[in-house]
């Protein structure tokens, strides 16, 4: 076994070592080292000379042109995580596959035909696989119609690392050492065919090799690449290629057989190692020849991918090789488009688990007809009651509910409302609202809820979209209602005596309910759902949750929220009781728990935020004794804190069950659901719990950007099909055609029943091996979020701020922040809030802001406070504060950097503080000066000092990065040793890496120093320990008898260096009493 660390032993060293070992065995008495061999230290000295004399200037200019902008890290399109975290260890999953000699020979034939090398073929294939696997450049290839273009859009920009032996003369060919250099190949073209991709791979490789004299670390310093613990710098995909050798070969008088080769583990997301084996003589093989194949090893970072992901990536790689070895002229726009897919077995398994179980309905076609049955069966039972503080605010039996429903239905028909027309309801949440809703459904009209808690301006937009034929109000909302409708009916005055019974007329496939989205600006989008949509949802929900006519449902959600429809219809369609909460108490957690207890509520449907509030502020002791048995959570992602909270606060309630449901309003409430475990110890759920498998007669697909099914475990867009999909957006055909598309995977049964539409949710998720759905946020960027159950797009809020300001604000950026005492990862409570950062227009600042007694800043704040108070946004998504900044920070790619804004302090001085950091007008602190001095020693500026105008060393400020003034990962190790010796502080290497600027590192060291002082027990320190006495005696003896003890070597500045070392062999141990790390 040959074992060596890859940091000082590259692949070529193996061959050199084996060659020299064989020579030693065969010619032991005559073996001498080659006089031409150069020591690695001499090679490094020459490199330093080239750097100081400017020999690299031309090469560095090339790299600066190639990387005028720094590419973004590879997207995590198919990763198991949505965001990167620091890599604490380099752990990888590996899969090997072998190309048989016939396929490998076809590759060589293509190579000869196109005048490239086999390395270029595998590089081009690797690029195509990455583009397919990560969906890079797919959109561009489709838009360009297959023609080659030179534009360099972000999603077609890909950087791949390769290794170069860096041995170009006889002196280095026989030398051991880490000569290997890394080169970054940046591809931004869009080749039309694989043959063009081959040419691109060849040209990029030759260009990079022409400027390979500069070490990779020097390139990173010249480009000022920011180091990040979460990924490798500059490129996160790596290809290594080398020619193999016979599996068995002579070694002295023995036979050497390579059993396994284990490459060093690295930080790359995805990497491929190719060993191209030549033909060799083998008497035991058919035809007397062996080899001729190729072994490919695929590696995936374990922090991002699982073993099955690596298997699928390897399968894609093999498929690409076969595809283009057969037809190198094949179009890449097809290869990246819709005519390729993952392997059939993987796709078929994913589709099978995407489909919910079959379900045959037992109810009438519409809930309006079902309610007629409930009235007949439960005429004298309380159907709806209004909860009130300290008692009952009124109630209706099923008979009374039916009478009032028929009275309102008759009034609508008398005012010309016919089947299919839209009718809006704008009332306080009382039983009259429920009667109004049921009356609309009964006559075949479409119910449009206009909740009084929503700003009137937004409701007016909904009215303008729906053009309701009538508006149903009550004595509270009627006088102030200003919506433009043909007829307004005050249901408070509709007589109930001598009411005639109205026939229930709707058909299952007719529109029933129109809900509007919670978009923050523009015209709200109105979603139209059918009677069949909700009939299916209610019937299957009753079966899933085990509900019957004994159910009592809490109705606390706003009527514009689809949860309100589920709460209402679930109670009444089962013959249960609906408990309505007055609007003024709907946000009162204490009142909610009191109502659950006093009204014997058995079922609730609420957001995780609501549940957390109830448990935190409500009477949990009373809840444990209540009739509450079923809780459905929806509207937000559920973290482990919710089931853990229920377990903690209601642990003694053995009959309690909780379900997690997922589904946008466009697919009628829940499209996937699962029961959460509430028994036993603390949950081991991930940050976001699975939402369960697809509900009956629904499908939850995970598709890529080309609407192709993804294998299990691969994240993509969640698309929902089946019985519950809405008809689309009212009055918006363009948006409907984009979001509601044909279900290409519908079964014959689904097509026969008319369930052939699929809704693109825009949510990102993946399916677990059991078909359970895991949510991972929104597709695209981080601008679409949910706060307190409301989905918003931060860009909409930004647009509202700019529009409301007139010409005063040039740019606005909205950022979601989290309170300091809450975990941002939770994402399920009201700990999040919106902060708006604004750039005031220069002309506005000059001509319109008035100087106040405290200067312009107070005038800016007064104006922003006035603007904030008048923003036409719902309270739940209105920014908590507006902060003026001088300019919007940008990423290295020139994009707006929301993360930088999210890290700013929440005060007005944040922008000026940022400017001071750049200008560095304040002197360095004492610890910054001490840290700077250690940097100078480690970076070896040969006696020069930072910030001296007479010297050549760099100028540093608090923001100067160690890696931008000559620091490397190797020097960081030395820096840690210097800090340990000079400051007597032992700092983990990772912390130094994460605090690589002078200011951050000095702050870290100051904190460590203060902690070290606090930890010292000064009383015990006053008495010398036995170890200290022994050390003193040793020093005395050394001074009396020099030479009796091994001396540690000294480095140039007098610090102790490792002077005693040991070779590690099997069974060998250091001598007793000596440390391996002296």
TrEMBL record:
Compositionally biased tracts (Basic and acidic residues): 1047-1056
Xref: InterPro entries: ACP-like_sf, AMP-bd_C_sf, AMP-dep_synth/lig_dom, ANL_N_sf, CAT-like_dom_sf, Condensation_dom, PKS_PP-bd, PP-bd_ACP
GO biological process: amino acid activation for nonribosomal peptide biosynthetic process; secondary metabolite biosynthetic process
Domain Carrier: 925-1009
Region (Disordered): 1042-1078
CDD domains (UniProt xref): A_NRPS
Keywords recorded for this protein, A-Z: Ligase, Phosphopantetheine, Phosphoprotein
Molecular function terms from GO: ligase activity; phosphopantetheine binding
GO cellular component entries: cytoplasm
Comp. bias regions, Pro residues: 1069-1078
SUPFAM superfamilies xrefs: Acetyl-CoA synthetase-like, ACP-like, CoA-dependent acyltransferases
A Pfam family it matches: Condensation
Name assigned to this protein: NRPS-like protein biosynthetic cluster
Organism of this sequence: Purpureocillium takamizusanense
Taxonomic placement: Eukaryota, Fungi, Dikarya, Ascomycota, Pezizomycotina
């Amino acid at each position: 076994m040959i074992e060596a660390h890859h940091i000082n032993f590259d692949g070529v060293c193996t061959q050199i070592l084996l060659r020299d070992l064989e020579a030693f065995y065969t010619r032991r008495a005559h073996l001498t080292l080659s006089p031409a061999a150069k020591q690695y230290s001499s090679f490094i000295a020459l490199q330093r000379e080239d750097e100081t004399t400017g020999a690299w200037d031309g090469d560095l200019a090339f790299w600066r042109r190639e990387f005028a902008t720094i590419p973004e890290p590879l997207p995590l399109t198919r990763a198991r995580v949505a965001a990167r975290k620091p890599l604490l260890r380099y752990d990888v999953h590996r899969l090997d596959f072998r190309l048989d000699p016939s396929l490998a020979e076809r590759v060589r034939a293509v190579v000869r035909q196109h005048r490239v090398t086999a390395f270029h073929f595998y590089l081009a294939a690797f690029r195509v696989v990455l583009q397919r696997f990560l969906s890079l450049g797919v959109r561009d290839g489709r838009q360009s119609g297959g023609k080659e273009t030179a534009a360099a859009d972000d999603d077609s920009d890909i950087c791949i690392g390769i290794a170069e032996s860096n041995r170009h003369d006889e002196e280095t060919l026989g030398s051991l050492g880490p000569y290997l250099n890394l080169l970054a190949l940046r591809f931004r073209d869009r080749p039309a065919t694989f043959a063009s991709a081959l040419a691109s791979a060849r040209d990029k490789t030759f260009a990079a090799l022409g400027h390979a004299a500069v070490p990779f670390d020097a390139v990173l310093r010249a480009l000022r690449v920011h180091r990040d613990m979460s990924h490798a710098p500059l490129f996160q995909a790596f290809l290594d290629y080398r020619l193999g050798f016979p599996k068995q070969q002579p070694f002295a008088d023995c036979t050497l057989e390579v059993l396994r080769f284990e490459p060093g583990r690295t930080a790359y997301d995805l990497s491929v190692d190719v060993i191209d084996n030549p033909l060799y003589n083998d008497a035991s093989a058919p035809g007397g020849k062996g080899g001729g194949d190729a072994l490919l090893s695929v590696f995936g970072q374990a922090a991002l991918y699982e073993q099955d992901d690596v298997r699928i990536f390897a399968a894609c790689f093999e498929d690409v090789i076969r595809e283009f070895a057969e037809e190198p002229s094949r179009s890449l726009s097809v290869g990246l488009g819709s005519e390729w897919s993952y392997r059939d077995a993987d796709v078929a398994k994913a589709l099978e688990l995407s489909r919910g179980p079959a379900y045959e309905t037992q109810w009438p076609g519409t809930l309006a007809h079902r309610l007629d049955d409930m009235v007949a069966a439960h005429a004298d039972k309380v159907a709806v009651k209004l909860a009130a503080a300290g008692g009952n605010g009124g109630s209706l039996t099923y008979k009374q509910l039916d009478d009032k429903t028929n009275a309102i239905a008759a009034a609508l028909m008398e005012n010309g409302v016919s089947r299919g027309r839209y009718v809006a309801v704008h009332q306080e949440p009382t039983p009259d609202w429920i009667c109004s809703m049921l009356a609309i459904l009964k006559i075949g009209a479409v119910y449009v809820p206009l909740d009084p808690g929503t700003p009137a301006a937004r409701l007016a937009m909904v009215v303008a979209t729906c053009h309701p034929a009538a508006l149903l109000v009550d004595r509270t909302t009627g006088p102030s209602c200003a919506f433009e409708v043909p007829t307004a009916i005050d249901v408070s005055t509709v007589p109930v005596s001598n009411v005639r019974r109205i026939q229930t007329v709707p058909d299952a496939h007719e529109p029933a309910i129109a809900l509007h989205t919670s978009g923050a600006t523009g015209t709200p989008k109105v979603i139209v759902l059918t009677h069949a949509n909700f009939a299916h949802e209610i019937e299957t929900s009753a079966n899933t949750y085990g509900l019957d006519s004994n159910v009592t449902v809490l109705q606390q959600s706003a009527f514009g929220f689809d949860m309100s429809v589920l709460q209402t219809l679930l109670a009444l369609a089962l013959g249960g009781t609906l408990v309505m909460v007055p609007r003024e108490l709907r946000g009162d957690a204490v009142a909610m728990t009191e109502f659950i207890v006093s009204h014997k509520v058995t079922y609730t449907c609420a957001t995780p935020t609501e549940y957390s509030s109830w448990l935190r502020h409500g009477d949990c002791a009373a809840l444990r004794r209540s009739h509450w048995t079923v809780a459905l959570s929806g509207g937000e992602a559920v973290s482990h804190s919710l089931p853990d909270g229920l377990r903690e606060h209601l642990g003694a309630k053995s009959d309690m069950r909780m379900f997690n449901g997922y589904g946008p309003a466009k697919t009628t409430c829940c499209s996937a659901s699962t029961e959460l475990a509430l028994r036993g110890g603390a949950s081991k759920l991930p940050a976001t719990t699975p939402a369960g498998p697809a509900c009956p007669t629904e499908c939850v697909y995970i598709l890529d950007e080309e609407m192709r099914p993804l294998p299990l475990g691969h994240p993509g867009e969640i698309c929902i099909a089946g019985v519950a999909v809405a008809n689309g957006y009212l009055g918006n055909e363009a948006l409907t055609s984009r979001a509601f598309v044909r279900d290409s995977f519908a079964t014959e049964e689904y097509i026969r029943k008319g369930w052939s539409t699929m809704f693109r949710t825009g949510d990102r998720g993946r399916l677990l091996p059991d078909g359970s759905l895991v949510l991972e946020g929104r597709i695209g960027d981080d601008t679409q979020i949910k706060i307190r159950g409301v989905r918003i797009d931060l860009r909409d809020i930004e647009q509202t701020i700019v529009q409301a300001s007139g010409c005063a604000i040039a740019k606005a950026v909205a950022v979601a922040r989290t309170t300091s005492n809450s975990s941002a990862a939770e994402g399920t409570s009201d700990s999040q809030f919106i902060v708006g950062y604004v750039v005031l227009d220069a002309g506005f600042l000059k001509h319109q802001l008035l100087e106040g007694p405290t200067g312009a800043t107070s005038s800016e704040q007064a104006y922003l406070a006035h603007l904030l108070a008048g923003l036409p946004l719902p309270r739940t998504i209105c920014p908590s504060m507006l902060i003026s900044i001088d300019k919007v920070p940008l990423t290295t790619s020139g994009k707006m950097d929301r993360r930088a804004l999210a890290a700013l302090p929440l005060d007005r001085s944040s922008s000026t503080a940022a400017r001071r950091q750049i200008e560095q007008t304040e002197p360095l602190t004492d610890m910054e000066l001490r840290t700077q001095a250690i940097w100078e020693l480690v970076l070896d500026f040969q006696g020069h000092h930072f910030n001296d105008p007479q010297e050549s060393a760099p100028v540093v400020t608090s923001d100067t990065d160690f890696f931008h003034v000559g620091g490397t990962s190797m020097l960081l190790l030395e820096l840690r040793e210097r800090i340990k010796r000079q400051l007597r502080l032992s700092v983990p290497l990772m912390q130094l890496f994460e605090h690589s600027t002078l200011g951050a590192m000095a702050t870290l060291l100051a904190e460590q120093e203060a902690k070290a002082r606090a930890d010292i027990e000064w009383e015990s320190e006053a008495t010398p320990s036995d170890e200290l006495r022994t050390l003193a005696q040793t020093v005395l003896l050394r001074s009396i008898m020099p030479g009796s003890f091994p001396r540690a070597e000294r480095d140039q500045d007098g610090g102790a260096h490792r002077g005693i070392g040991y070779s590690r062999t099997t069974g060998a141990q250091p001598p007793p009493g000596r440390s391996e790390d002296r």
